Amino acid sequence: xISFKNVYKRYxxxxxxxxxxxxxxxAGELVYLTGHSGAGKSTLLKLIAAIERPTSGHxxxxxxxxxALKKSTIxxxxxxxxxxxxxxxxxxxxxxxxxxxxxxxxxxxxxxxSAARVRAALDKVGLLAKETANPITLSGGExxxxxxxxxVVHRPSILIADxxxxxLDVDYAQSIMEVFRSFQQVGVTVLIATHDVTLLNDTRxxxxxxxxxxxxx
Length: 217
Ligand code: ADP
Ligand code: ADP
Hints:
6-stranded mixed sheet; 4-stranded antiparallel sheet; 25% strand; binds adenosine-5'-diphosphate
C-alpha cells in the first residue's frame, strides 16, 4: 500500500532529513513510526502525502507513483489518504458537525450524502453525541477525535497520523489508539508517527525506527 525505495529528502537549506529510506507497508497493516525528535518522522509522512517531494528515490502510495505525480493530480492521491497532522486547525466559529462536513463540502459532495457520512464518521470516533457542540467545549481527547473524524469522512484507504496522542494522558492515548485500531480492523492501512512508549510497547504492531534520517529497524 505504501512503499519507499532508496528515498532521500534534502531540504532547500541543504539539510538531509531522510537518507536511503526503504520499507513496505501492506494493505490493512497498522505500523508505528518512531525515532528521536528531528529523526525525520514528519518528513516521511509529508512525502507520503506529497506535501514535500523526495530529492531522489521511489515512493508508491495506493498504487500511485508519487514521484511522477503532477501538481494537478495530487488531489487524487489525497483522496485515498486521511491525514492527521498537529497543525490542522479546528474551526471554532462552527459546530463539531460543520467541522467534519467541511472536507466533503470542499469536494463538492451532495448535502444529504455528506450529512450521513459526517454522522457515520462522528459515530466511529465516539463523538456523535457532541455533533451540535462548539469544539471549544471539547476536551483534548475529544478534539483529537474530531480531527480523526475529519480525516476519515471521505473514507480514505490509508490513514497517516503525526503524534496523535501528544498532550494526552495515558488513558486518553489508549482510547485514541482504539479508534485507530477500529479503522485498521475494517481494512484501513494506518501509519502513526509517535514516541509514546506506552503505544510502542504494544507488540502486536510493527515499528519502523528512524535515527538521524536513516531507518534503523
Ligand atoms: P521528526 O518529525 O522526527 O521530529 P522532522 O521530519 O520534523 O523530524 O525533521 C527532520 C529534520 O529535518 C529536522 O532536523 C528538521 O529541523 C529538518 N527540517 C524539517 N523541515 C524542514 C524544512 N522545511 N527545511 C529545512 N529543514 C527541515
Ligand atoms: P482533495 O484535494 O482531494 O480535496 P485535500 O487537499 O483536501 O484533498 O487534502 C486531503 C487531506 O489532506 C485533508 O484532510 C487536508 O486537511 C489534508 N492536507 C492537505 N494539505 C495539507 C498540508 N499541507 N498539511 C497538512 N494536511 C494537509
